[in-house]
Amino acid sequence: MELEICDITRQYKDKCAVDNVSLTLTPGVWGLLGANGAGKTTLMRMIAGIQKPTSGCIKYDGIRIEALKEGYRDIFGYLPQEFGFYPGFTVKDYLEYIAALKGLTRKETKQRIGTLLERVSLKEVKNKKISRLSGGMKRRVGIAQALLNEPEVLVLDEPTSGLDPGERVKFRNLLSEFAHDRIVLISTHIVSDIEYIATCNAVMKDGKIIATGKTEELVQMVAGRVWSAGIDGRELGACENQVMVVNVYNEGNGNVRLRYLSDAPVIPGSDKEEPRMEDLYLWLFPESAGKERM
Amino acid sequence: MRRLFYLELRRVVTTRTTWVLMTAIILLSAVMAYFPVSFVSAYQTDGQGNVTKLKGTEAIRYLKESEAGISGEITEEKLRQAILSFQECYRQYGSAFPPELPMEIYVEKIEPYYPVLKMAAAVLAPEGVWLETMTDADISPEDVPQFYEKYRERMTERGKTEEEQERIRKLNEEVKTPFTYVSGFSSESLDYLILYFLLMLFAIVMILCPVFSAEYQTGADSILRCTKYGRIQLAVVKAAVSVMIFAVTFLAGTGIFLLVTNLVFGTEGLKTSVQMINSVFVIPALTAGQTQAAAAGAGFLSLLSTAGFTLFLSARCGNVQDTMKIALPCCLLPTIIYMLSSANVANIVRALLPSGGLGLMNSFLYELLGNNFAHIGPFTIWMPHLILGAAVAEIPLFFILAVRTYCRREA
């Protein structure tokens, strides 16, 4: 099983949203990392077949997805970043409707909806109108619909936005279990989600894939650049101007401990730290923290 | 696919706008069908010279009794009697209508012959003279044997060109003479049927505008398009559900309308020749009942064609508001064109528009009862034929375009 993205470009009037991207996705959870406007959503929509590339193609097991048509959509699940529900539908109505669109039989529909509602903790609200659900619940309905047909290729755009930490943990477990022998592509701003479950990552910047690899491999890009140091809390402002601060931990007594990125230790008494995905993210996308790389 | 059709139907029907509009338009049919009843009036005398004005169902019942003498084929004898009665009144009172003519005389001598007199005046009186302005010298019982011959001659003269006259002659050949008249049919009920179709048009457009565009607007189609049956099958199902909703609304609404009309006015009046309804100079060979059926059938086709056009717009526009902003004015465009111009090009354009058969003054029915022709190249086409032809061609065209536009659109 292989999803091959071959030199795809998506050009809008004055912007190249996806620029000559090539990537081969194999079974496992793939994290797609990138700042806002990096082209992640456009790439995912092209994989979903709802946007056409200006050039290039996407192949599933060697066959172009346009040629596979229904055959591709039959093994595909998609959760867009933003999507609408029918206001009059209950959770169950909606899932039944999507199940019919996915070609599930009545028996399969009943069984799958029952299982999924339990897995995404929506069983109690199955007869509630979707319009009356909270943002997190709506998101879980979206996740459930994407999993209805047990897709071989699952693309989730920001699936955890709006979920509380408990729900996120549940979602990660569900996905890890589900991803066995399937291709799952997730884009998220919540780097820890990817860190926990992604077997491989692709990093996107300005429409291009700038790096791919396992989490351990990717974080090596910032190996030797992650430091921590204890400082007086009053010096924090000055330090923030000097280095790219990843996080600040309050140690009490007016002292704070900084985790920062820098090619070399800048603050006296700095200790070298093990790099994490969050460090890599900030290193690659300093603008997301409102900084320029130091 | 059957399950998808059922689920989509359930989804659309349970949408508040849909069921409110559907219920309203179906219920409105009974109200609108009953309106023309209130317009019927007749005068009755009690034998002592007292005249009472009857209205509604009482008037309908009374007119049926009073016009019993002319019921059936309008023979030469009936025409002669009607003219003689008119002349007698006119000569004695200087007019055949109140106030000059005493009401009790009018009720006795004119009212029972009114439909025949009206028709006789239109055919036999000089051009530009009609029953209310006609004198006893304008019409003579001696002209009666040539009545139907003169009718066909004058009918043909309505054509503005030789081609039109030839077309009228051909179309009018099948009109059976003598005409038939059976009291009880109201031309107002046809007018109200047309008005009802116009209101139904707006309701249907409002129901169908969101079919595709609401999905784009909310982003729901991003998910739908990624499903196995989310492209052509879903588009076809949506179109089929739209047709179903329209058909049910139309059949229920029109069915109730015709049922109420024909129950109140009576079905016997449906046998009346269309030439006896309003104007005698009507081209086709139809009875009132057939005219009613033709108006309903053409209404169905024009509404279905507009439904297809609305779906196409819905598949094309990014949101419901834009769809409505285009669809609603487009529905009124034939009426606007009719009011602005009666030129040949204007006639062709309005007939070709999806709602070409619907409107207050420009509907299929008025074209059926009129004698307008469109000239396209060497062809002279009677307007009702052009309207029907356009609707029949546009129905599959717009539905195919709607499905194709939805499938080709990027989410």
Q: Helical segment tally of chain B?
A: 17
Estimate nothing, just give the exact number of structural domains of chain A: 2
Strand percentage of chain B: 5-15%
Helical region count of chain A?
11
Main features:
heterodimer, A: 294 residues, alpha/beta, Rossmann fold, four-stranded antiparallel sheet, 14 strands, 29% strand, globular, B: 411 residues, mainly alpha, two-stranded antiparallel sheet
Question: How do the helices and strands line up, and which of them pair or pack?
Answer:
The complex is a heterodimer of chains A (294) and B (411).
Chain A: E1 3-11, E2 16-25, E3 28-33, H1 40-47, E4 55-60, E5 63-64, H2 65-68, H3 70-74, E6 76-79, H4 91-101, H5 106-119, H6 135-147, E7 153-157, H7 165-178, E8 183-187, H8 191-197, E9 200-205, E10 208-213, H9 215-219, E11 226-232, H10 236-242, E12 244-252, E13 255-261, E14 271-272, H11 277-284
Parallel strand pairs in A: 3-8, 3-9, 6-7, 7-8
Antiparallel strand pairs in A: 1-2, 1-4, 4-5, 9-10, 11-13, 11-14, 12-13
Helix pairs in contact in A: 4-5
Chain B: H1 2-13, H2 16-39, E1 41-45, E2 51-55, H3 56-66, E3 72-73, H4 76-93, H5 103-110, H6 114-124, H7 147-157, H8 162-172, E4 180-181, H9 187-208, H10 210-218, H11 221-224, H12 232-265, H13 288-316, H14 320-340, H15 344-352, H16 364-368, E5 373-376, E6 379-382, H17 383-408
Antiparallel strand pairs in B: 1-2, 3-4, 5-6
Helix pairs in contact in B: 1-12, 2-9, 2-12, 4-5, 4-6, 7-8, 9-12, 9-13, 9-14, 10-13, 12-13, 12-17, 13-14, 13-17, 14-15, 15-17
What's this model, at a glance?
The complex is a heterodimer of chains A (294) and B (411). Chain A has 294 residues and is α/β, with parallel strands linked by helices. In chain A, 33% of the residues lie in helices and 29% in strands.
